[in-house]
Amino acid sequence: MNLRNCFNIRKFLSVSAIVLVFSSLSFAAHDKKIATVTIAPTPDQYTVQPLPLTAIQCAQCHTSPFQGLKENGGNHQFECQKCHNLLHAYSPRKGNYDAIMPKCASCHDALHGAKINDCLACHSNPHTPRKIAATPLIATFCYNCHATIRTQLDTVPSKHTKVACTMCHTSHGFKPSCFTCHKPHVEGQTVAQCLQCHPVHQPRNIVFPTTTPSNTCSTCHSPIVTKLAKGASKHAALTCVTCHKGKHRFIPQCTDCHGKPHNAAFHAKVPRCLTCHIDVHDLPVLTPKSK
C-alpha cells in the first residue's frame, strides 16, 4: 500500500466520523421542540373534501382576472371553476400551459364560421370577452352578430354604408360622437338631438319631432328658411315641421291646411295653386299685370 492510498483511507475515515457525529446530534435533537411557535394540530378539517372555491376567494390572489370579469365579463361572470377545473397544474418544466387552459369550444360553437378558428385574435382576454379590439379582421365579421345593422345600412344607402364598422366603433360596444365627423346644425347641439332626427345607421332616413326648430333645418336649407322668416304671409310664423311633418322630403298639399279657398269654377280653370302662388315659402301672387 503506497502513501497516497493511506492518505485517502485516513481522509475517508475522518469524513465518515464527522457525518456520524452530525447524524447523532440530529437524532438527539429530534425529540426536542424545534419549532419557534406552537400550532395546535386540527386533523378534523382533513376528514372532509373542500367545497369549490368562489370567485371572491380566487380573487384574493388573481385580482386582475376578477376585475376584468367584474367590468367586462359579460356572460362569463360565473364561478371560476366552471372553466378552470385544473387548479395550479401549470408546470414550467412541462410547458403544459396550453394543455391545462380551458378551451372556448368547450362551451361555444363556431359562431363566426369555419374561417375563424382563433378566438383570441379578437377576444384577446377570456376574462373580458366583450372587450374586443377593432382589428381589420373583426371588421369583416361584425355582421355575423349584427345582421340587422347591415340591413339598415343597405336599405337606406348613405356615406355610412361605405365605411367599415371600425371607422366609428373603435372598440366593441363603443358609441362615438356624431361630432367626431360631422359639424352640429346649431351651436350647442347634443348627440341626443342628432339622434332625434338621424338614425345612426340610416342617417338619410330623417324623421323629426314636431318640436324641431327651423334653425336646425337652416343648416342645409338656409335660403328657404330665411325667405320664410322674412315673408309677409302667415307662413312666416310657422316652423318648417308645421308643414313638412315627421319625415324629411315630405311635401304637403296646400289643401291639407287651406281646403279649397276658391270656387269650383276658378279651380277648374287654375287647378294648381302654384300657378298663382309661385313660391310656397313666400306666397307672392302672380297677378294679371305681372304675366
Q: Any overview of this molecule?
A:
This protein is mainly α and 291 residues long. Among the domains are: 55-103 and 118-131, no CATH class; 214-290, no CATH class. It has 11 helices and no strands. It has helices at 3-30, 55-59, 63-72, 97-100, 136-139, 147-155, 191-197, 214-230, 240-243, 255-258, 264-269. The longest helix has 28 residues, at 3-30. It is elongated and about 120 Å long. The protein starts with a helix and ends in a 22-residue tail after the last helix.
Major sheet characteristics = none
| Poorly predicted runs of 5 or more residues | none
Number of strands: 0
The gyration radius over C-alpha positions equals: 41 Å
Shape assignment: elongated
Question: Would you spell out the secondary-structure blueprint of this structure?
Answer:
Layout: H1 3-30, H2 55-59, H3 63-72, H4 97-100, H5 136-139, H6 147-155, H7 191-197, H8 214-230, H9 240-243, H10 255-258, H11 264-269
